């Protein structure tokens, strides 16, 4: 046996003997050490967990750790002793003090509390608008405000798209059937209701049916009543409804619809534009004016609002204020600004301020862009290819026999006209188109837009009996028959009539000296018992420098080149 092995055995023997002698004391010491070790381990575990909890508390406060995830990890541990210690530790006061103290120190370092630069007001508005458009919730369902489809329609979106494609393809009857079938299974669908209304409108337009148009208007009303109707669908429906109501001549109801829409979608620029325009169509400039002013407060560069406000100011004879608005609005070339009427009013404002050359520059520019037939012929409701010349003869106008009838009876007509000039009759009323620079100009109307004014004809029965024999005049939806009286000192601004579809004739009844009329660049005078015939779509101007009133009868004839079919299809002006 090797020496080292023998030494190990020997040492072991000594150790056994020693252990045997001291066995009792060693056992006691071992138990004590074991208890100390266990206690130390417990304290170590407790302290470790406390540190972890405190650290995690800080981390949770800073937003870096998910406390629920942490609890799940602790709950999933298999060591029952750890669970017990964790439970005891959560009750211990020491960690609680550290947890409260530490976050307060770290709170200033929290990334979320670092203030970013204050965003601009415009940015805030844009952000808020984007957030509004993302989604909105109520107790029943979530409504998507982006686009035209809410969650109710989301389930049938493909079918809705197919139905709407049929309208694009002008298959209106098929689209109507598909939308109505879809509404049997999805009666609350905003898009299906809108599609049905649109299909009805196009069918009504094709068939020229007012009854269908009324059904269409009712259908648009159903869209507005649809639950959770997206704003885009609501706007499209109610604006369309207002437009159809205007077409039927019900401007007041149209305004009511748009006012309601403005309440439901406040301060929407598109809605405000429609409302302002409808007030203008109604002739209520005072109500329209603040609407366009409000739009310009929100969007100072809005060209549409500028041209309309410019028009209103021009009608108030505030020419200096109207010119920059009309000029800037036209220059934007925005939708709704590219119309001849704005060039018309801009040029007219310049002309009335004596800036004649600038006025004709505006007119020439508009003519080159196709808004006017020429710088002289600035009518807005025209039929292409009609002969255009300022002065006509009875033969060229193809009304020779009617002219003879009127001239042969001029004294009878004169006497009835003079009799109605008595202020007590109330027959003559002031001109209201703001065409006078000075003086006094009144009119007494017998026919307008192809319709006989029976009440006024009772005051001039012989004149109306003569006019009834002239179908070229009585059927003229774009003309009038009326007496016109002009008093001394009157100047009528240079202006153009609204259409090239008519020829205007003047029968002189009472004509003193000192009167003249210019059409384009030719000036003529009236004679008692004689007719003057001219195309009033050309620029014309009148001066009365005499010392007594001038009385004439105005009779509008159809342009001789218009066919019967064209006359029937033309809208009234």
Produce a short descriptive summary.
This protein has 573 residues and is of the alpha+beta class. The protein has helices at 3-21, 23-62, 67-75, 80-91, 93-106, 121-134, 151-154, 157-168, 172-185, 190-207, 210-224, 231-247, 251-264, 269-282, 285-298, 303-315, 319-332, 340-352, 356-368, 400-408, 410-419, 454-457, 461-467, 471-474, 564-569, and strands spanning 136-137, 142-143, 391-392, 429-430, 436-438, 441-448, 451-452, 480-486, 491-495, 502-510, 515-519, 522-524, 531-534, 540-544, 550-558. It is globular.
Q: Look at the structure and give the mean pLDDT.
A: 83
Q: Strand-residue fraction?
A: 5-15%
Oligomeric state of the chains present here:
single chain
Q: Which shape, going by the Cα principal axes?
A: globular
Secondary structure: helix percent: 55-70%
Number of strands: 15
The end-to-end distance, rounded to whole angstroms, is: 137 Å
Secondary-structure class: alpha+beta
Radius of gyration using CA atoms only: 45 Å
Sheet of most strands: 8 strands, antiparallel
Q: Helix segment count?
A: 25
The low-confidence parts are: 1-116, 134-146
Structural notes for this entry:
With 573 residues, this protein is of the alpha+beta class. Helix content is 56%, strand content 12%. It contains 25 helices and 15 strands. Strands 3, 4, 6, 7, 8, 10, 13 and 15 form an 8-stranded antiparallel beta sheet that branches. β1 (136-137) and β2 form a beta hairpin. α15 runs antiparallel to α16 (303-315). The longest helix is centred in the first third of the chain and has 40 residues, at 23-62. It is globular and about 80 Å long. Mean pLDDT is 83; it is low at 1-116 and 134-146.
């Amino acid at each position: 046996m090797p020496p080292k092995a023998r030494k190990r055995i020997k040492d072991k023997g000594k150790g056994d003997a020693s252990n045997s002698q001291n066995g009792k004391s060693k056992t006691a010491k071992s138990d004590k050490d074991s208890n100390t070790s266990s206690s130390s381990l417990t304290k170590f575990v407790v302290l470790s967990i406390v540190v972890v909890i405190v650290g995690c508390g800080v981390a949770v406060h800073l937003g870096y750790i998910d406390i629920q995830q942490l609890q799940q990890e602790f709950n999933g541990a298999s060591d029952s002793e750890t669970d017990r210690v964790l439970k005891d530790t959560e009750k211990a006061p020491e960690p609680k003090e550290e947890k409260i103290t530490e976050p307060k120190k770290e709170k200033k370092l929290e990334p979320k509390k670092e203030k970013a630069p204050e965003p601009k007001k415009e940015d805030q508005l844009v952000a808020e608008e984007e957030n509004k458009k993302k989604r909105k919730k109520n107790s029943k369902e979530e409504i998507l405000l982006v686009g035209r489809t809410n969650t109710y329609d989301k389930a049938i979106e493909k079918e809705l798209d197919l139905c709407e494609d049929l309208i694009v393809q002008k298959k209106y009857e098929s689209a109507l059937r598909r939308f109505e079938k879809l509404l049997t299974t999805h009666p609350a669908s905003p898009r299906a209701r809108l599609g049905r209304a649109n299909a009805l409108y196009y069918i009504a337009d094709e068939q020229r049916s007012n009854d269908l148009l009324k059904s269409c208007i009712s259908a648009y009303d159903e869209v507005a009543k649809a639950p959770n109707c997206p704003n885009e669908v609501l706007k499209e429906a109610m604006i369309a409804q207002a437009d159809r109501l205007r077409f039927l001549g019900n401007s007041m109801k149209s305004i009511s619809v748009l006012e309601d829409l403005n309440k439901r979608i406040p301060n929407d620029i598109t809605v405000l534009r429609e409302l302002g325009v409808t007030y203008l169509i109604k002739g209520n400039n005072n109500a329209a004016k603040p609407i366009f002013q409000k739009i310009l407060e929100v969007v100072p560069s809005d060209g549409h609002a500028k041209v309309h406000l410019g028009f209103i100011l021009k009608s108030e004879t505030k020419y200096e204020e109207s010119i920059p608005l009309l000029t800037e609005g036209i220059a934007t070339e925005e939708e709704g600004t590219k119309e001849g009427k704005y060039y018309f009013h801009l040029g007219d404002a310049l002309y009335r301020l004596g800036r004649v050359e600038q006025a004709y520059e505006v007119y020439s520019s508009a003519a080159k862009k196709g808004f006017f037939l020429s710088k002289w012929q600035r009518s807005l409701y025209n039929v292409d290819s009609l002969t255009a010349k300022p002065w006509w003869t009875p033969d060229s106008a193809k009304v020779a026999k009617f002219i003879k009838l009127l001239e042969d009876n001029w004294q009878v007509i004169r006497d009835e006209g003079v009799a109605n000039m008595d202020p007590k009759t109330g027959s003559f009323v002031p001109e209201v188109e703001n065409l006078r620079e000075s003086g006094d100009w009144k009119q007494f109307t017998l026919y307008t837009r192809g319709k006989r004014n029976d009440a006024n004809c009772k005051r001039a029965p012989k004149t109306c009996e003569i006019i009834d024999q002239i179908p070229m005049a009585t059927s003229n939806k774009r003309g009038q028959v009326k007496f016109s009286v002009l008093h001394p000192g009157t100047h009528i601004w240079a202006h153009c009539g609204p259409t090239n579809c008519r020829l205007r004739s003047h029968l002189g009844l009472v004509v003193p000296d000192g009167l003249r009329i210019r059409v384009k660049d030719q000036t003529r005078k009236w004679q008692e018992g004689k007719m003057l015939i001219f195309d009033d779509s050309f620029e014309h101007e009148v001066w009365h420098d005499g010392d007594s009133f001038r009385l004439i009868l105005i009779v509008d004839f159809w342009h001789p080149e218009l066919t019967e079919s064209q006359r029937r299809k033309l809208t009234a002006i």
